[in-house]
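Thread: "does anyone have the structure for this chain?"

Original post by V.I.:
We have the sequence but no experimental structure in hand. Need at least a predicted one for the grant figures.
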Amino acid sequence: MAMNIIFHFSSQPYAIPGASVKALFKLPKLTVVEDALPCLAGTLNCRGDIIAVFNFAALVGKLPPVYALDDVVIVLEHAGQQLAMVVSDVCELQDIRVADIAPLPASITPESNARLICGQVRSSQQELITVIDVAGLFSHPAVLLAELKQSTQEEQTTTRPLVDDVLKAMPRAHAHFPWHQFDAAAQQVLQARAGRIASISLPQEPNGTAMLAIIRMGGESFGIGIECVQEFTSIQSVALLPACPANIAGCMNLRGDALTLLDLRAALHLGTTQALTRVVVMRTPAFGLFGILVESVEQVAPMQVQDASHLPACLHKFDESCLSGLVHWNDQEVPVLDVSDLLERTSMFVDVVP
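Reply from O.Q.:
Generated one for you, tokens below.
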């Protein structure tokens, strides 16, 4: 089985193989390229690499929705190349077996989209998830044309007839990043995100790296390994539970499952003034399905995890036994939570009344 990132477009779920995902973060300011392809949102400085950012809606020939601060940029890597896509509503991580993916009949798949889709698979709720073909995405006409614009004049002359044919067949949805449509406050947020993404330094060596989600709780940043994360979602109607430890905030309905919600702030000696609006849904062998309440999910990316024993003095307020390491993110040292150890020490599931 392989981990896939699930997002929604036009109320339909799509999956991207996690092995191809190099980074995932909230929408930053993008640089619009003059006379660019209609489906190119712009470019992005990602750790020193200039990456072309496409709008997924425009790639599949649909008019892109209005850009929002909660949109997500997914950076993909394939055969030594990189590109990024703007999507909305990244909702979960899910294991998908290649053998379970059923190819779509050619007769029902538009020719312009055929190379983007490798098939569909049923979710645990029997919903059909469309699986993106990453190799096909990198050979999409828009991607090839973006590369051609950076090629030599001689190469462009040689391939021009093919380019003209491709341009005629391409969807014409206009997806350029609408910087001036954001108000001043939103522009500051987008600009700050772009600065952080440009300055983040990740190691080139794969040793010691792990895919982490950076979350915010009590005004502090933490890392959580995504190997046990099922999805990220918003808080719905919360039902309080009697005779529960204070760390249990209640439960909510997650597609028919009763999801126990945990508030870790007291256990971590954090402030409680910030509103918790997001849920990190996790499943572990010891505790089953549960959710951790957080203020926000800032980024998902591979990061080098350092030994937790090297915590800076400013982080000693956290019990080292609940930390599995330390990462450098956004010009700060961020502790990585050992969620299982924290749950065992604080006995968060004791006295829960069914």
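V.I.: this helps a lot. Residues 2-199 form a domain with the OB fold (Dihydrolipoamide Acetyltransferase, E2P) fold (CATH 2.40.50.180).
O.Q.: and Helices lie at 56-59, 111-114, 134-138, 141-148, 153-169, 184-199, 339-346.
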